[in-house]
Amino acid sequence: MGVDPGFKIGEKVNLLKIRETFHCGSMGGMLPVNSTNIMVIIADQTLGLYHDMWENGILHYTGTGKLGDQQLDGNPGYKNGKLYNSRSNGMQLHLFEVIKKGEYIYRGIVKLASQPYQEEQLDENGVNRKVWVFPLKLVEEEIKLDLLEEEELRTKLASFTDKDIPFEFIYNGKPKAKVDPVTINRIEIYKRSKSVSLNALAYAKFNCEINSTHESFIRKNSTKKYTEPHHLVPMAFSKEFSVNLDVEENIVSLCSNCHNLIHYGRDYLELLKILYVSRKKLLESAGIYISFERLAQMYQ
Ligand SMILES: [Zn+2]
Ligand SMILES: [Zn+2]
């Protein structure tokens, strides 16, 4: 379930347009719709009462309830409850931000970045009370930017010649230190190294790691077959790891078809399983510990 609103990220709309598109209510900042299992979330920076704050790409969004302690059930507490459980109930969350009155900026699909927590804030009567705070991150924009980074890497690799290919590459066998991300429009992006990916492709002998008989063509400036590097544990999830994900152990060589299938295909899980089984030990040698279930979630 879910809704494709057809809005561009960053597009400014009004509340009426939001209501028509999502068939949601208009009272308050959390507008759930049961029939499509979505919630429209409005972070209104023009209201004095709530203190929604951006910090390192995460919006700390205050739940609903103007008086007394905020709840996870009852009315309007049930909305907090729905958001609290959004990782398990599959609810799709669409974020709008209001910086100028009446102007709703679409920020795209968001999800909980970590466990919601409680803190003390003043209520409408100036009395101290407990509120729920939901750490939200912009997934849609993040995935889009991450795919752009991957594309940039492919473009950079287009120019390599046979003499750029490492004569003999061996796995390092130890974790590599993390590099700080760059922040673009409140989203943290992790850059990829061209030479690391080239090592990984060379190690796979420029074959598709799903099946070495998969056909490809010869590269323009080289005698090697064309395959594309793909980070098995996606770079966008670097925050979850204490080590660098841009390492040969985490980069697989895929033919164009398998690469597109793993990103956009219905049967991506089959490919993912093959790669996970063949890479699990190598990933661990680079300090990347992950279960197949968690990896599969990252590709949903
Ligand atoms: Zn990829
Ligand atoms: Zn393939």
How large is the radius of gyration? 23 Å
Give the uncertain stretches in residue-range form. none
Along the chain, the helix and strand elements come as EHEEEEHHEEEEHEEHEEHHH
* Share in helix: 25-40%
- Could you give a short account of the major beta sheet? 9 strands, mixed
Strand coverage percent: 15-25%
Number of strands: 13
The hetero compounds bound to this protein are:
zinc ion
Given helix and strand content, the structural type is alpha+beta
Overall 3D form: elongated
Q: How would you explain this protein's 3D organization?
A:
There is one protein chain. This protein has 300 residues and is of the alpha+beta class. The chain folds into two domains: 12-137, SRA-YDG (PUA domain-like); 158-298, no CATH class. Helix content is 28%, strand content 23%. The chain is built from eight helices and 13 strands. It has helices at residues 15-22, 77-84, 86-89, 139-157, 194-203, 256-264, 268-285, 292-298; strands at 12-13, 30-33, 38-44, 53-55, 58-62, 92-98, 104-112, 117-122, 128-138, 182-184, 187-189, 228-231, 251-254. The strands form three sheets. Strands 1, 2, 3, 4, 5, 6, 7, 8 and 9 form a nine-stranded mixed beta sheet that branches. A hairpin with a 2-residue loop joins strand 4 (53-55) and strand 5 (58-62). Helix 6 (256-264) packs across helix 7. It is elongated and about 70 Å long. The two termini are 13 Å apart. The model has no long low-confidence stretch (mean pLDDT 92).
